[in-house]
Every structure is written in structure tokens, then in C-alpha cells.
Design brief:
This protein is an alpha/beta fold. A 9-stranded mixed sheet has the order 7-8-6-5-4-3-2-1-9, sandwiched between helices. A 3-stranded antiparallel sheet has the order 10-11-12, with no helix packed on it. The protein has a 3-stranded antiparallel sheet with strand order 13-15-14. Strand 3, helix 3 and strand 4 form a beta-alpha-beta unit. Helix 11 runs antiparallel to helix 16 and helix 14 packs antiparallel against helix 16. The protein is globular and about 60 Å long. The two termini are about 25 Å apart.
Length: about 400
């Protein structure tokens, strides 16, 4: 059977960040035991349905997974090992908030098998952290990295965010300098996306917070990111991700390559055996489902062939290495150049797209205008008769 990846959603948080629209809840710490038990029941039910698959990566996402105790994480990991074949070199990542860590729990996570830590630092500027509702300070982020190293984590990512209200390129440069000085193995540098319905969206819309950086400032921040990470020895392998040699996030590559993954926990999404489905986003509905020994009922279906082909390009072109041409042809029965002949020729002529014997990819210039490339691919596909499998 095909090797899979496992995503485990932990929807606990101390306080919702102002920009967050993820399925997460504060004030639920007293229900941790019950939630973890429900997750373990769902893992068993999914394994009974899909069989004892081999698992290559696990990702504890949230919310704030580091609000779980070491015993909770061990309980989940023991259940995974009972139900699936966890590969010896499996990458097991846990997201964490620097304001929720202690060495004892970090050591317990490590002993349970977690071997990669991803810390949501976002900024090294205390005023900006407060403005977006983060509960930690820059000093606490530095301390969190020290604790992680002390606990034995030798694969550490820092999440950083730019384009924050009132942020200047100089402030972003200072955040990058301080983050790089902590010597993480991986950096994820995301530009802020304002999600409708979040407090930050409302504040920006109402003009009650500092304005977002303009286009020139954003271009300057983009340029600083590329220059400073490159000089510090990090190679860009995806539009927002930079790694030291051998430290790319294998779990996220599964998503970008459109490989199979199983999601467990509240609101978790899955793509298994050509079928897509997702769990309830309501706390009560999820617990009712999992405690009843059921699995996800809400299905997204298989998706039309055209949708799957476009998704493969959209996700694959996020990576600097691009889309594997032979696998695309094998999976869809068509060559990429036959699906988008006009766009690929045009983008190649403009030096926005390139290719080799194995892959089609965006050039560095193409990465900077990726959204425009994707619009062209979509428009060319929409102009043709739709196919459905």
C-alpha cells in the first residue's frame, strides 16, 4: 500500500490571534483529556478503514499543540504506532507557541518521538507582536529556541510573518537578523493574509490600526528575505520556505506534491485513495463523531480531472523544483505541455518558466509573479471544454 502522511489537529490555544481564522478555541484546556481520547479513537477507526499503512511524516498542527502535555503526545503517538507502520526515519513535527513552552514538556515530546519543532515566532518586535495578538515577546522566542535545543531538538523551524500593520522594511530586516542569529534549521517567511471575519481584518477595514505596508514596502521585504536567507546559508525550496541542507519540511512537501495524507482531529482534511473528506469544525460535533467510532462524513468528492490537474500545477509550482512531468502524465494521461501549450510557451519566452528532463518550474522572476502565472493557466484551462472523470 502507498505510504501516507498524517496530520493531527490540536485546536487548543491560550488566546486567538487577531489574524487567525483557523479552527481553534481558547478556554478548552479542561477538555484536553477528552479531546486526545477522541483523536485516538478516530486514528483507530481510520486505520480500520484504510488498513495498516506506512506513515512517513506526522504533523501536529493547531491551534497550539504545545498546550498538550508530554503524556498526551505519548498517548497519541502510541496509538499511531499501534495502528500504522511508523517508518524508522519518519519526520514528526509539532507546532508550538513560544509562550507555552517548558523544558520538561519539550523533553517529553522528544521522548515520545517528535523530532522537529516549528515555533510560531512571527516577529522579533514586541510592539508588532502585541498588535497582532501574540502572547509571547521577542525575548520569550529566544528563550524558547534555547529550551528546544536543550531538550534535544536538532531540527527547528521558525515561522515569521511580514506585511504586518505599520511594519517597515527596516523592522522586517531586524526580525530576520534576530531570527537568523538564533540559528534555526528552517525558516518559513509568510506575508500576512487578511482573512475576513478576523479582528485584524475588521481593524484594518475600519482604519483603527496602522495601515498595511504599501506595494513598494512589500517588494523591499521580499527582496530582503531572499538576500538575507541566502547569505545565511538557507536555500529557498518553496515560495515561502527556506532550509539548510537536508532540512526541508518533508510533511509540507507532501501537500505541494499532492501526495496522500490523512487528517485526524477537529476540522482536519484528508486526501486518501483519490477521495477527499474533512471532519466537523464544531467541537461538539467532532467529539460526537469520534467518540461514536465514526469517521468523516463530509466528503469533497474526487474532483474533476481538470481541477486535479490545475491543483497539481498550482501546488507544484510553489516549489523551486516545480512539477514532475512524468508523474503528471502518468496520473492524468496527458502531458503538461498538451494541457497548457499557450501559457507554457508564453511564460517560457518571458523567462518566467523553465524546464529540465524531469520537471517544469518557475524561474526566480516567475516566483515573484506566481499569481499571474496561475491566472494564465486557469484562463487557458477554462477556455477549453471541461473533462470529467
Amino acid at each position: 500500500m502507498e505510504t501516507i502522511s498524517l496530520y493531527i489537529h490540536i485546536p487548543l490555544c491560550v488566546k486567538k490571534c487577531a489574524y487567525c481564522d483557523f479552527a481553534s478555541f481558547s478556554g478548552r484546556m479542561g477538555q484536553r483529556d477528552r479531546y486526545v481520547q477522541a483523536v485516538c479513537r478516530e486514528i483507530r477507526a481510520q486505520a480500520a478503514f484504510f488498513g495498516r499503512r506506512s506513515v512517513a511524516t506526522i504533523f501536529f498542527g493547531g491551534g497550539t499543540p504545545t498546550l498538550l502535555s508530554g503524556a498526551h503526545v505519548r498517548q497519541i503517538m502510541d496509538t499511531v504506532r499501534d495502528c500504522f507502520v511508523l517508518l524508522p526515519d519518519a519526520e514528526i513535527t509539532m507546532e508550538g507557541n513560544p509562550g507555552t513552552l517548558d523544558v520538561e514538556n519539550l523533553r517529553a515530546y522528544r521522548e515520545a518521538g517528535v523530532n522537529r519543532l516549528s515555533l510560531g515566532v512571527q516577529s522579533m518586535d514586541d510592539a508588532l507582536l502585541a498588535a497582532i495578538g501574540r502572547i509571547h515577546t521577542a525575548k520569550e522566542a529566544e528563550t524558547a529556541v534555547q529550551m528546544a535545543r536543550e531538550a534535544g531538538f536538532d531540527n527547528l523551524n521558525l515561522d515569521l510573518m511580514y506585511g504586518l500593520p505599520g511594519q517597515t522594511p527596516m523592522q522586517w530586516k531586524e526580525t530576520l537578523q534576530k531570527a537568523i542569529a538564533l540559528s534555526p534549521d528552517h525558516l518559513s517567511c509568510y506575508s500576512l493574509i487578511l482573512e475576513e471575519g478576523t479582528p485584524l481584518y475588521d481593524s484594518v477595514s475600519a482604519g483603527t490600526c496602522a495601515p498595511l505596508p504599501d506595494e513598494d514596502a512589500m517588494e523591499a521585504m521580499d527582496a530582503l528575505t531572499g538576500e538575507m536567507t541566502r547569505e545565511a546559508g538557507y536555500a529557498q525550496y518553496e515560495v515561502s520556505n527556506y532550509a539548510r541542507p537536508g532540512r526541508q519540511c518533508r510533511h509540507n512537501i507532501v501537500y505541494w506534491e499532492c501526495l496522500p495524507y490523512l487528517g485526524v482531529g477537529l476540522n482536519a482534511h484528508s486526501d486518501m485513495d483519490g477521495r477527499r473528506f474533512y471532519n466537523p469544525s464544531s467541537w461538539e460535533d467532532y467529539l460526537r463523531m469520534a467518540e461514536g467510532g465514526e469517521t468523516a462524513r463530509q466528503s469533497e468528492g474526487e474532483g474533476a480531472a481538470d481541477e486535479r490537474m490545475f491543483e497539481r500545477m498550482m501546488m507544484g509550482l510553489r516549489q523551486t523544483r516545480g512539477v514532475e512531468t512524468a508523474r503528471f502524465a502518468r496520473d492524468f494521461g496527458r502531458e503538461i505541455e498538451a494541457v497548457w501549450p499557450k501559457t507554457i510557451e508564453e511564460m517560457t519566452d518571458k523567462k518566467l518558466m523553465g524546464s529540465n528532463k524531469e520537471r517544469i518550474f518557475l524561474t526566480q522572476r516567475g516566483m515573484q509573479v506566481m499569481n499571474g502565472v496561475l491566472v494564465s493557466l486557469m484562463e487557458e484551462m477554462d477556455s477549453k471544454p471541461q473533462t470529467h472523470d
